[in-house]
Write a structure and sequence with these properties.
The chain is an all-alpha fold. It is built from eleven helices and two strands, in the order H-H-H-H-E-E-H-H-H-H-H-H-H.
Length: about 290
Amino acid sequence: MDLIGIPPQALFGQLLLGLINGAFYALLSLGLAVIFGMLGVINFAHGALYMVGAFVALLLSQQLGLGYWPALILAPLAVAGIGVALERTMLKRIAKMDPLYGLLLTFGVALVIEGLFRHWYGVSGQPYPVPALLQGGTNLGFMYLPTYRAWVVVISLIVCLGTWYAIERTKLGSYLRAATEKPQLAQAFGINVPRLVTVTFAGAVALAGFAGVLAAPMYQVNPLMGSNLIIVVFAVVVIGGMGSILGAVLTGFGLGLVEGLTKVFYPEAANIVIFVIMALVLLVKPAGLFGRTA
C-alpha cells in the first residue's frame, strides 16, 4: 500500500539514506564545531582528514592485512597524530589572529593533502570490503535494512552523544572549557592549556578519521571524497550554530532526513535544499539554530 502516493519501500529507503548521510554530517560537523567552539579555528582541512582516515583503513588492509575493526581504532589515531603535528607546527602560530587566517591555512593544507593522494592513487575509487560480521541485512516487511548501514547510524549517534557528554558533563570537559574561555586564569590554577588545546584538536580531527573508516565500505575510497562533502558539512555547522556541539549533532541528523525526504518528493532540489535552509536560517537567526550571539 502506498503512503501519500509513495511506495513505502521508496519512502523508508530514502529516509534510511538520509539518516546515513546525517550520521556523516553529524560526525564531521561535530569535529568542526569542537574545533571552532574551543579553539576559534575554521578547519577547512577536515574533509581531507576524513579522506585520510578512509585511506589509512584501506592501506592497513592492503599492506598489513588488518581488517575493519583494528582500522576503526588505528585510523582515527593516525589522523589524530596528523592533527597534533598540524596544531603544534602551524595553528598555534596563528592562535591569536583573525579566524580567516586559520581558514586560509587549513584550506591550503587540504589542497596539499588532496594533491598528494591524487598523485599517489589517482582519482578512481578503490573498494573496501564490508566486515563479515556486518554483512547481510534484515527484512522489516516494509523495507530491507542492510546491517552495515544500521551500524553506521547507531555507532555515529553513540560517538556524537558521547563526545557531547564528555565536553559538557565531565571534569575534563570543564577544564577544557575553562582553558579556552579564560586561558590565563586556567593556567594560574595549574592547567596545561597548550596541551589541552592540542588534545582537543587531535580528538576533533580523529572524529573525521573515524567517519572516514565508517564511509570506506559504503563509498569508493578516493582522494576527492572529502572535498565533495566538506562544503555541505560547513553548511550544517552554520545552520546549527558555529561552535554549538549539540547543535551540530541534531542539525546533522535532521538535515540528513530533510535531504532524504526531498529526494522522494522533489528530487531536483535534493542537492540544494541544505543551502536553501542555511540561507533562510541566516536571515532569521544569523547565529544559527543553536548558536549564541557574541
